[in-house]
Amino acid sequence: MQGWKRGLITLLAAAASAYVAVPAMAQAPGTQFIGITGYRVGPYGANGAAFFSGFIDYLTLVNERDGGVNGVKLSWEECETEYNNTKGVECYERLKTMSQTGPTAIHPMSTGITYSLIDKAPADKIPLITFGYGRTDAVDGRVFPWLFPLVSNYWDAATGIVKFIADKEGGPEKLKGKKIVLLYHDSAYGKEPHPVLEAEAAKLGFELNKIPVPHPGNEQQSQWLQIRQYQPDWVILWGWGIMNATALTTAQKVGFPREKMVGNWWAGSEVDTEAAEGASNGYYAASLNLAGKDFQVVQDVQKYVIAKGKSKTPEKLVGTVLWNRGMAAAMMTVESVRTAQGKFGKKPVTGEQVRWGIENLTVDTNRLKQLGFGSMIPPIKVSCTDHSGSGLVRFQQWDGKQWKAVSEWVSGDRAMVRKMVEDSAAKYAKEKNITPACLAG
Amino acid sequence: MLYREAGQFKTSYAADQQLFPILQDRVAVLAFLLIAFVVVPLIATDYWYSAILIPLLVFSLATIGLNILTGYAGQLSLGSAAFMAVGAVAAYNFQLRVPGMPVLVSFVLGGFMAALVGMIFGLPSLRIKGFYLAVATLAAQFFIPWLLVKVSWFSNDSASGVIAAQPINILGYAFDTPASKYLLVLAIVALLALAAKNMVRGRIGRAWMAVRDMDVAAEVIGIRMLHTKLTAFAVSSFYCGVAGALYAFAYLGTVQPEDFNLDLSFRILFMVIIGGVGSILGSFLGAAFITLLPIFLDVLLTDIARGFNLSLMPGTISMAQLVVFGALIIFFLIVEPHGLARLWQIAKEKLRLWPFPH
Predict the structure, then answer these.
(1) How many folded domains does chain A comprise?
(2) pLDDT bracket for residue A314 (50, 70, 90)
(3) What band does A23 get if pLDDT is binned at 50, 70 and 90?
């Protein structure tokens, strides 16, 4: 009895060391290898599955339809992080070793994993792209050369939402004396918009009441009781996961109009509104990208990828907010590689070269049309001082079946956000002894 | 034959009281340290340092901390991750606010801060025991991360409570490569592990074990309850605090308070249970089991899928890995409820008799 037990353990240990010792080189020679730290299991598995399915479907489309980027085929490997920081770091380290040119650019899709990689990525010369999450002050590329919070960040969303509310009320001056509640997930993510909204409240003269919801937020009776007593004009919902659906259903229970609720983009996917069933009708959300299947690129994926059996994406995910966001994220990676190839030659490019590519990335309206994305995302122009490249958000409203765009791409108080970004980045630079400077190509 | 203490005569009290009284143990520990300090740096890659060895050592240290409290002093705690958070944030603030503070001193001070907080949350242990105490320490687990986010002074007014650990610089040498960080962490963990080994065999450790085995009897023979239980909380939290500081400074660099959540506390408790309750060696084995096995399974299952050219749905391997991992935990707990350290003990007994078992 004891003998076989010991034998088994020795065997396990030996096998373990033999296996983990040499992570396999997964990269086919001559391809652009893209490392993907994804998650499809764990508490946020449903969100991750939609995003990373879209991401991989777009990469497959580029290979199938265009034969790669300027003839350089894409290859990729997905490593499961379970939305867990320790596993995220392990995946990152593993993907890093899998090819000569590195993992191109990493989309951590988790604020926690982003923070865990902030110090590692510059040392390894691997750019991180955080599409709508992560560290807001990373917009200042002079302090964070390797971090790209592309398109828009939380502070853009917060000021954008204030502007949206002001428009609905009939102008910024009408906000004076109005009462706005911020119902937020009690975590680093939920606290991110506080300084901006406080500054907006002081500037425009509305009253801001911040009400925290403890994780996971599936019980909000007391918070909504508080809201009912306070009688706010608007509620800004800054939630994640189950908290969003609960907020919507509880709002219905206490009779707060959903037409007076605005969420951010992590509170604005089908996962949230469908879980709340009828309670979500009329609810608004700021969005980074539009949902829907009408875009040329979505039809191309259906034609070149899904119809040919090259995709494992469940049919119901196609065209959802998060799936489209994954497609857009993959497109930005691919276009950054293309930009880098323009300078460094049509071959697989390294992390350092991709970083240059992202920093000089321009995807204007024409290019978006060519790529088939149309108005799904705003045009982007990245520079060293502006690592987000856009700062625009667009508002969507849930009509009971799907998200409908109800505004153009709009921006909030960009000057104020910019100043706060620079202050915050300067403080970080001082703490870390960084001299802010643009990296040379 | 190989592992036999017969013939090893002790001729002085010092020889009788040494940390590893058996020659073979001394040789094994020295060989192991030699491998860890010399051989590993010769062969390991960055992947090994950053993804496997550093987290393994950090979690081992936290597990030793909890093992002192739960395994030796018998006080069940679910607050280990919170004490790690205290250590990390305190070390960060000492570095930030005291000019010229040596980084090692700030680790130690971080540990002391954690010890202080641990003693405060250990006070209920004088009146309540077992599961009820676990619930009381749960308060620490909820209160501390909340406080660290709530009071932005702790994170130098970062909007979201995130701290960015300062670079490690000791006597002008910058510990910025994974290999150098590994050696630093290894040195600290080795030192603290030996200190723990030393502590648990002496007066303090015996007092802890007496309280664990029967607190009324311990009190009767003159062990002070207050003193013993609070030292257990203090020493345990000190270890967790240093582990937290290393987690922030040497492993991740930038951490948010939510990293130190209940989930991590549970993981550390599982490391103690699987490794062996009341064993320093078991703390290392348990940490290795919980941190390394999922990675190993992930790599193994991916390779199997690739080898057989299986076209799986994405996520299937991850699900399978969780299933196998869970099944292995149950398997080990059934065949060896006393943890992996007990297996080593059995192996040692066999070795004593080898090659002529009776």
Answers:
(1) 2
(2) confident
(3) very low
Q: Is residue A427 part of a domain?
A: no
| CATH assignment of the domain containing A234 | 3.40.50.2300
In a domain, A114, yes or no: yes
Look at residue B135 and tell me if it is in a domain.
yes
Give pLDDT, residue A441. 60
Q: How confident is the model at residue A358 (pLDDT cuts 50, 70, 90)?
A: very high
Q: Is the domain of A36 the same as that of A136?
A: yes
Q: What is the ipTM of this complex?
A: 0.85
From the number of C-beta atoms within 10 Å of its C-beta (0-12, 13-18, 19+), residue A113 rates as buried
What is the rounded CA–CA span in Å between residue A149 and residue B45? 30
**Residue range of the domain that includes A340:** 32-152+292-382
- Domain residues for the domain of B103 are 22-261
CB contact under 8 A, B347 and A6: yes
**Contacting residues of B for A20, CB less than 8 Å apart:** 52, 292, 295-296, 299
Average pLDDT over residues B78-92: 95
Amino acid letter at B109? L
Per-chain mean pLDDT for chain A: 88
- Please indicate if any CB of chain B lies within 8 Å of the CB of A90: yes
How does pLDDT run across B155-189, given as a tens digit for each residue?
Answer: 887 766 788 888 898 888 999 899 999 999 999 99
Indicate whether B53 belongs to any domain.
Answer: yes
B7 belongs to a structural domain: no
Residue in the structure block whose two tokens are 């679910």: B78
Q: How far apart are CA A380 and CA A391, in angstroms?
A: 9
Is residue B65 situated within a structural domain?
yes
CA distance B261 to B85: 9
**Chain A 360-399, residues with CB within 8 Å of chain B CB atoms:** none
What are B339's two structure tokens?
Answer: 């943890």
Considering the domain boundaries, does residue A421 fall inside one?
Answer: no
Chain A residue with the nearest C-alpha to that of B301: A19
Strands A284-287 and A261-263: parallel
Mean pLDDT score, B91-106: 92
Question: How many domains would you assign to chain B?
Answer: 1
Q: Do residue A24 and residue B256 have CB atoms under 8 angstroms apart?
A: no
What end-to-end distance do the CA atoms of chain A give, in Å? 64
Which among A201, A271, A242, A207 has a CA at the least distance from the CA of A51?
A271
- Cβ of A2 within 8 Å of Cβ of B55? The answer is no
| Residue A94 and residue A207 share a domain | no
Look at residue A262 and tell me if it is in a domain.
yes
Give the H/E segment covering residue A209.
strand A207-213
Instruction: Decide if B164 and A431 are in contact by the 8 Å CB cutoff.
Output: yes
